[in-house]
Amino acid sequence: MITNCALAAAMLASCEQSDNNELLICGTYTEMKGASTGSRGIYSLAFDAKAGKLSVVDSVQTCNPSYVAISKDRDFIYAVKETGEDAGVYAIACDKKTGAFGETEFCEGASADPCYVDIFNGKLLTADYSGGAVTVFGINDDGKVDGRLTRIDLSDGEVVSHAHTVYPIKNESALIVTDLGGDRAYFAEKSQTNKSGFAFTDTIQLEKGFGPRHVDITPNGKYCYILGELSGLIQALRLDGKNISKIGSAVCDTVGAHGSADIHISPDGKFLYASNRLKDDGIRVFAIQDDGSLKSLQYVLTGRHPRNFTFSPDGNYILVACRDDNRIEVYRRSKSTGIITPQRVSELHLPAPVCLKFLK
Fold this sequence. Notes:
The protein is 4% helix and 54% strand. It is mainly beta. Strands 5-4-1-30 form a four-stranded antiparallel beta sheet, with helices on one face. Strands 6-7-8-9 form a four-stranded antiparallel beta sheet, with no helix packed on it. Strands 10-11-12-13 form a four-stranded antiparallel beta sheet, with no helix packed on it.
């Protein structure tokens, strides 16, 4: 019988030696509705780009690491601890060649239920959903988290704010923050004069009940798209210098499920993909027109609750985290037409996967 240590060593060696393998980091829920999901927390996975298959490399015990970010040097994985109490962020050392995890540290200080994390202006930012705030943490030169620096409350006293995204744009010179509760998107610029590292410059007010969740921006920086979780709409914006203007919306959710989840633009900037949950779960594919408007091309059914998805580094596949079916599904896509082949290439069973990021 092969021991667990020997098996892990063999998998790590295989991952490092294969030219076809890409490393993928997966955040999960370890607890849902007061019960354990059976997940350890964060997993590193090897993706065979030739066969389109995933395998587990390593895992690290963490609590509800529902969203992850990767340091620029790829030596650290940062993850939220999405809990109502004792919420905060993890910093996990990671071998970028093998996917093996090292030392793990936890820093508390986020407000309730941080659901998104990213790096901006040398700082670690979380979007705290129930807390309605953005929490800013320092990052030391060694990559470890250096405590909470400040917290920005998004509430204006009239609505209950639910921060959902902190999304760096323009090579980290600007930032977008979405407030699902306030139906607003805030734009900010880098600043060295305050603890947060940014200053708000503009606010886009969306229609009542829009529920802005996630965003993405075209590679040329001209167009921004905001996905409405509750409305099922995608709001398109034109970014012209410091001028931001609405240029129309497209329907992502046609069945009124009120559960649109994730949005990503293809690496070539030609196609936009958005996922829906709660009913007719799947991914809608759009072509991005020259004027920034969206043309619906396809809808592909997936497993239940496609919370998050990502493109393989070569752009030939889409990998979908289907939380309620406890699996990551792999689909082939055409880079020329944007179309997804509905039949799955493969799947990997993993408890409650909710965030996928390639270690690249």
